[in-house]
Fold:
Amino acid sequence: MSLYDQRLEADLAAIRTRLQGVGDEVLHNLRHGARAVLDLDRRLANDTLIRDRAVNQATREVDHLCHLFVARHLPSGSHLRFISGVLRLAVAMERVGDYSVAICRVARQIESPLPDAVLNNIELMSEHARRALRAALDGFLEGDPDAAHVSRGFAAQTAALYPYAFEILSAAADSDPRPARDLFGALLVFRLLQRTAEQAENICQQTLFAVTGERKRDKRYRMLFVDENNAMVSKMAELACVESYPHAGRVGSAGLEAAAEFAPALRRFCRRRGMVLPADDAPRNFADALDSSRHYHVIVGLGVDPTNHCSVPYRTAALQWDLDQDATGGDSSAEELYRELMRRIRGLMTTLGVRDDE
Structure:
């Protein structure tokens, strides 16, 4: 190995060692922050708050080492991807450190012990979040893409606990005599632990990028268009979206009360446009379209407000479009309706970051 290669490897080792130290300290603070909430230990909370200052200083040192590496070696390829990943990880570590600080501040404000069910969920989420973060960091430092799958599993477990924890807190708010501030504090702790798991997922993506050069895939969305009967407008919106944005994700349509069949004007429109409307396809009810196992990212009400007809899932955005056109006037109205829908759909896809040229 040449002298230059030895210097390069030594500099990389120094960066890995410093990043490892930052990760260990962040995990230590996260564990103690959660423990301070569980035990209502204000002394531990204050000690952990002070330790976060060292995390901030360490992340600045990592940043400095990365810039020195770039200046000395002008890296390219895998070395440049690694340094780019380290810089992003330093930001992620500082954010997780801030989450620990916020958790400690909550611990200092809670006045009475939280319900056992809430404490159990905090402990579980804390454990899953720490495991996800540990696996993600180890995978990055070791250049092991397989570790990303392990980390994502722990992150998924953390995310799955959050809705359940939210329901427990909601029930406690209705019947528990504890101060509302304590319950709001517990909700913040749940959210910060979930955000920690999400940071672990981001680190997994940086691992894949640093090792293989694989970039994060564009997000795919589950969308549902809803109108009164799914005979014309919502089905046209579904077909238009699928035709113009085939890579957007999974798109469907439904009606509050499904018609017996699609409108003749829709079938004629599809024939003129060359759109495929399967012969065995039929309007479906909104209630049947709601999938209890997977949420829609976006539900769009066309002339109706979907929030009045379902309990919108926590992660779903519900929109309402009041269209200027309808299809009651025949084929020309159908063309006008299509143009109006496309204008709205393009705006939505631009907002979501979906391109039509993939």
Summary: The beta strands are 221-227, 249-255, 298-302, 317-321. The longest strand covers residues 221-227.
